[in-house]
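Progress narrative, Year 2. Work on Histone-lysine N-methyltransferase from Daphnia pulex advanced from sequence curation to structure prediction during this period.
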Amino acid sequence: MFGCVRAAPFNGRVPYDMFGWLASQYRPRPQLSVRSAVDPEGQAPGRRVTNFELLPMTVRFKHLRQVAKNSVGVYRSHIHGRGLFCKRDIECGEMVVEYAGQVIRSVLCDKREKEYEAKGMGCYMFRIDEQTVVDATVHGNAARFINHSCEPNCYSRIVDIFGKKHIIIFALRRILRGEELTYDYKFPLEDVKIRCTCGSRKCRKYLN
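Result:
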């Protein structure tokens, strides 16, 4: 035990993380909603059809733009350092957040991954189709911090809004304030495994 940090042996610098402050223990997460037992209709929170699922995608997307910033926030997570959490109750089928960023061609992915790796930066990318990818590493929003879970409460979907493709995260069930948002990354099977730390009852142990 050392009384002064400078008196301790130097073990090298901690890799720079420009988003490290988001996982600070001094940023308290939203408190879990007291409505955790039953919903307003007296049913246990789970999968049920809501009015959101009956509305046109354009109307739902407009609503998303109005409420997204006040609906979610990035806080410390046990899954992967930091994650995205609900700041209000979210209904089943509701658009939660758009996975936003810079749309690039697929051929640029490998080049950018190497550039980010050389700078010691994390890489946040989401494929739209065979030709295009959303790079959220620098120009993205909070959606890039959504963690994987083998038992998720959200799912991703590509939707066409006025001729433009968007990656939208939807609520798979009713999600209560204070819950961490997760979806299944659905990585392809590979020999080199990436360990899963979601901690769910149905955890597959590996992301791929």
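The two ends are 41 Å apart (CA to CA). Helices lie at 57-71, 109-118.
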